[in-house]
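hey so u asked for the seq, here:
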Amino acid sequence: MRPHKILYPFGALYGLIVKLRNKWYDKGWLNSETPSAYSICVGNLSVGGTGKTPMIEYLIELLLKENKNIAVLSRGYKRKTIGFLEVGPKISVNEVGDEPFQIAQKYTNVKVFVDENRVEGVKKIKELYPQTDVFLLDDAFQHRSIKAHLNILLTRFDQLYTDDYYLPAGYLRDHKSRAEQAEVVVVTKCPADLNLESKRRIKSKLNLKSGQQLFFTGLRYNSPRTLFGSDISDQIDSFNYLAITGIAFPKPFIEHLGSLFSVQGQISYPDHYSFKSSDISKWKNILSNQENPAIITTEKDAVRMLPFKIELEGVKVFYIPINVSFLDGEQDFKNLVLKG
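ran it, C-alpha cells below
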C-alpha cells in the first residue's frame, strides 16, 4: 500500500520503536518463555484481515484427526472483560470477543480461552487441563514474551508485508525483519488461478531465509446457513439480500455475494464492530421496503448478532462460513504442523 505521506514520520518512529523492542528480546534482555506443550502461533505483522481465524480452524480440524487435546488461546479482541476466561456455555460473545466465541461454538471438544497475557494464560490452561498437548496461540506473533514451537506468519496476497508501512501511515504493527523468525509463511486470500510466475514474483519479494517454508492459500466460501430457526437453505436463491459486514476488508466477500445472489444493499461497519439495537432497527427499516428480504453476513458477524435474536425475530438471517483452501503443497504443510 502507499503510505499516507503526512503520517510518514510517525510511521518511521513506530518502526524504530518496534525494531528496538525486538532487539531487546533477540539479545535476551527481555525474557521469552516456551510453553511446556507443543505450541503453534498463528499471526501476522499487520493489523487485521489476513485470515487468522480460518487458519486456526484449519489447524483444529487437522489436529483433531490426530486425537490431540487442543487449547486455543486468544487475546479476545474488543471484549468487554479483562484477564483470563474460558469460553464456556454461559459466556457471551461480548465477554470474550467474536473470534474465540465462534471457535468455541463450532468446536465443542476444543478448549478455548482468552487472556491478554499469553504466558500466564498458557500456564493457567495447563493447570486446569494438564492433558493439553497442543496450544494454538491466536494472533500471538508480536507477543515476544511467549515463544511458540512453530510460528505461522500470514500475509495477504494483495497487501504483502513487504509492500506495507508502519502504523499509523500503513498497517504494519511489527517490524518487517520479524518475518525471519517464522518457520512458515502463508500468503493468504490468493486468487484460485494464481499462476507460477506470480508465485515466483511473490517469493522473490518476500526474500525468505533458507529453511523457511512458503505456502499459498485462498478462501473457500461455503453454502449459506441460517442463523436462527430451521434450515431453509433450499430457498436461498429466492431472497433479496441486505449484506451486513463488520470485518477488516469486506470487498472480496461482497464480490462473492454479488456473483451468486441478489444483493440489494450493503452496510459496512468497522472490524469487530459491536452491533446495537439502533443498527437492528435500521436494517429492519431497509428490509421493510424490499420484496422477499433477508440479511446475509459473514460467520464472524453472525456471532455478534446472536444477542439480538428477539429483536431479529421474523427476519431471515443467513451467514456464510469460510475455509482455508491450499493452492498447492497442502500435504507438506500438514507434515510441518504434525511433526511437532
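The chain has two domains: 5-220+325-338, 225-320. The chain has a mean pLDDT of 95.
lmk if thats what u needed
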